[in-house]
Amino acid sequence: xxxxxxxxxxxxxxxxxxxxxxxxxxxxxxxxxxxxxxxxxxxxxxxxxxxxxxxxxxxxxxxxxxxxxxxxxxxxxxxxxxxxxxxxxxxxxxxxxxxxxxxxxxxxxxxxxxxxxxxxxxxxxxxxxxxxxxxxxxxxxxxxxxxxxxxxxxxxxxxxxxxxxxxxxxxxxxxxxxxxxxxxxxxxxxxxxxxxxxxxxxxxxxxxxxxxxxxxxxxxxxxxxxxxxxxxxx
Length: 234
Ligand SMILES: [Zn+2]
Fold this sequence. Notes:
Bound molecules: zinc ion
Mean pLDDT: 79
Strand content: 15-25%
Strand order of the largest sheet: 5-11-10-9-6
Radius of gyration: 19 Å
Number of strands: 11
Helix content: 25-40%
Number of domains: 1
Low-confidence stretches: none
Oligomer: single chain
Shape: globular
């Protein structure tokens, strides 16, 4: 009596032993009452432990940092220390990197780690919004990284198409778009727009923006139509 049932993880049936912050704490400037959102997580699905958070943060900062902007100050605060402390982290970042003629360094991005990070972020948003777990059996999930340059000639046009389609979609459904801004300190760290006119059991589009300039679109596409009990197909 009075004992609260243990909550289950936002990604699996295991008992939650921790809470996953989303977006991760490391993405925010120090200080201030951030009141970050959290979801219950088992230790396996606590993304902070996998190193994906830091990896993604570094890549976003490399892409978005300019002058004195927020991404640049986050880079100085969180990333440089982590790079100094961890040889494994430096090695992961330098994998496939090359020097350009201009003297700049081009980093290759580990897309599997990005996908893993965004799968987790979308699952957390899903869990918080609908109160149920995101099921890869029901939705196919994929992420379009609108801010990355690519050597793949096929990627560039599809990125432009995606950018346009998402802008059109947000425009058309502007009264149904849920807009969320995480703690704002001078500049917005993270915001998203969710388009889900049919709710949890249909296709959902999530447009993420980090530091006002790094953009990712996640497409949660329904794999099969929901089965409605008693309804005959025609
Ligand atoms: Zn789990």
